[in-house]
Amino acid sequence: MAKNTEVSEAQSKFHVGDEVSFKIEKQTFTGFVDKSYTNSFLITFESDDPEIIDKYHKKVVINNRHLKMIKAAPQPEVEDEDEDDNETKSPKAKKSSKK
């Protein structure tokens, strides 16, 4: 069976580097998205509670429905470059037809 790799609407709201808030063990924490999974995120967070630190080691996987956005990380701008421009700039891109 093939894996579902489509990004859900809830999943697309968060990106790596975003600051989010979530609850674990009836306490609210803030952290940063480290990695995206199909329905959840790996979050790195800080805590002063030694039991929480010992149990979670400053990382936790949280379902995307249980996250709240605090601050979005800056997203890199995608530049659309013409392929023709790249070929003229790079001598390796041209193939010679010498025989």
TrEMBL record:
<feature type="region of interest" description="Disordered">
    <location>
        <begin position="69"/>
        <end position="99"/>
    </location>
</feature>
<protein>
    <recommendedName>
        <fullName>DUF2187 domain-containing protein</fullName>
    </recommendedName>
</protein>
<feature type="compositionally biased region" description="Acidic residues">
    <location>
        <begin position="77"/>
        <end position="86"/>
    </location>
</feature>
